[in-house]
């Protein structure tokens, strides 16, 4: 069970809903792919490369969350952003394929 907040219409919103997690992972994949294009030979075996990717993606997601505000912002700043960043960086760094397929594959694990 995830943390729940009341939105402006007094409806409960779960911060760990599959839809929100999927949206955050999609955004993180975009950011991780961008990081990878700036680092043409990252090695997923090197913890330094993985950590650098996760840090950059997490920072960019936090900046976006702060600018947007709302429930998604609270979720990102409460740890969902770093979870999405770890997922995205591990997918992007361990695969030369399109990362969107990894996101599709993860749908089953989130249900």
**Structural shape:** globular
Q: In which range does the helix fraction lie?
A: over 70%
Cα distance, first to last residue? 13 Å
Main β-sheet: number of strands, strand sense, barrel status?
A: 2 strands, antiparallel
**Number of helical segments?**
4
Q: Provide the gyration radius in Å.
A: 14 Å
Structural class: mainly alpha
Total strand count, please?
Answer: 2
What does this structure look like?
It is a single chain. With 111 residues, this protein is mostly helical. Helices cover 71% and strands 5% of the residues. Helix 1 (18-38) crosses helix 3 and helix 2 (47-68) packs antiparallel against helix 3 (70-94).
Draw up the topology in text.
Elements: E1 4-6, E2 12-14, H1 18-38, H2 47-68, H3 70-94, H4 100-110
Antiparallel strand pairs: 1-2
Helix pairs in contact: 1-2, 1-3, 1-4, 2-3
Question: Which features does this protein show?
Answer:
4 helices; mainly alpha; 111 residues
Q: In brief, what are we looking at here?
A:
With 111 residues, the protein is mainly alpha-helical. Helices cover 71% and strands 5% of the residues. A two-stranded antiparallel sheet has the order 1-2.
